[in-house]
């Protein structure tokens, strides 16, 4: 049998070109999928962060209520053991919020600092 080397080399070159295109398409698809996974993971993290911040804001009002209640408590209640339990719950709630990155801003008697993020959020509304 007579083999046409030139035709074989041409066919081989065409197949090699096809395989390179397939490989490039696969690599592009793989990169797109990795980017998609990163975007969806980032989206999930943003949702969780938003939900956490919403919950923390709601828990802050509970913390404020505890503090107002403690401030208005008559001195004769200090002797009751159940009050100690309530103070422990308050401290646990406060520690939980601090573990999530919340820090108390000491502002009693100090001028309103508009450079603090919370102050900026309040002044923008």
UniProtKB/TrEMBL annotation:
Record bears the keyword Cell membrane: no
A Pfam entry, by short name: GrpE
GO biological process, one term: protein folding
GO molecular function, one term: unfolded protein binding
Keywords associated with the record: Chaperone
Similarity comment: Belongs to the GrpE family.
Protein name per UniProt: Nucleotide exchange factor GrpE
Organism for this UniProt entry: marine sediment metagenome
Source organism phylogeny: unclassified sequences, metagenomes, ecological metagenomes
